[in-house]
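Please describe what follows:
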Amino acid sequence: MTKIDWMSEVEKRKEALIMNAQELLHIKSLLDEENASPDAPLGKGVKEALDFMLKLGEKDGFTAKNVGNLAGHLEFGEGEELLGILCHVDVVPEGDGWLSDPFAAEIREGKIYARGALDDKGPTMAAYYAMKIVKELGLPLQKRVRMIIGTDEESNWRCVNHYFEKEEMPTLGFAPDADFPIINAEKGISDFDFVQGKSDYENHDSLMEVQSFLSGRRYNMVPDYAKATIRISEQQTEKAQEFTHFMNQFGLESQYQLEKDELSLEVKGVSAHGMEPNNGKNAGLFLAEFLSKQNIDAQAALFFHFVSHYFFNDSRGVNLGVAFADDLSGEVTINVGKLSYSKESRGKVGLNLRYPVTNQMEETKEKLQQCVSKEGFTIENFTDSKPHFVDEKEFLIQTLKKVYEEQTGEKAELMAIGGGTYARSLTSGVAFGPLFPGRPDIAHQKDEYIVIEDLLKATAIYAQAIYELAK
């Protein structure tokens, strides 16, 4: 059989691929439970994106199936075994400060700019076209090939959980939702809240009383905005200037407003993915740090001292006593994704903790409990997704290494990440692309984009990978 030039097959379909990617990126597929309905349990936007993919697949001759309006799949080929390609069409909130509309999918200088361009709609379309190429070339396969489409990857994974309750587990597979070359180790991911308990607070003569404080929307994002409202009857201008000076030291944008005896403080930080908090500037932590140094009421003082001591300048769990690292997957990281406080409901810290593959979460949780109970806090809303690891010797990894090296001419190193991809929901699955080495990771950030040349190159890699894994 003649050798297939995968790249030229992609080039033939380039215009259609870009157009379909833009159409998918136009859909504002954000989790919206407030406006949920039985046929759109996670909101209209994510359902629209799922429907778009299923209709596209049907039109191109794939077998399409909607699974409970939470997930779906597109399949072709025959055989006992199943090759799974796990993608998702939901996106994180767009945030502020974009140069163009986050859902316009504008093309500038060879890049498509949109929320989801890199995570994960661009790669989803690349994998879709890869399947389409293999199908249209009529190549002989021994396995069925199935794209599984999720709609809740950025939150609670209800989509794949529901999907695998109803549908079969692929024999092997990959998720085009991270980095090239190949990710065979993913850290464990745990989300939970530290909640401030009730106590009899002796209010000393405090100058300021914290009325409310809010920062962050998602456990897995570094918050780029924080706001506090404070009651203060004297030294108002002095405190407002002190606040501005404090934020200036860290190069952060801030503003304040004074109305009678109420002072409101706002901070703009830098958003980043929660797997590496140090890539961002956590607006909530900076504002909490400022308040912890002020003469504030006792209940608030307890909360903000707690936040300052355990989290400011410490994303590795050192002060909490849970720091840990291994050679397979690196260090524990802790992202303070949500912070809230009010006089009535007290304080709450929402954390996203990522831990190495050899780290035992049970022991870590025990240590956390001991540490925070001393401070009058409890752990609530605890969830845990175990680490994921696939041995290098497996057929899946050996095949993907070969494909990557043939397509790029570069060595396929194995990598570990702090991010969690859908690969971990497969018994034998890895994350594979689309971000090439040396490219900045702008997922979850403003002006997210995918380089068109990379999109096409990834499509060629995926097409060959599907063929080699399923033939």
Summary: The chain has eleven helices and 24 strands. Residues 6-186+388-470 form a domain with the Aminopeptidase fold (CATH 3.40.630.10). The mean pLDDT is 94.
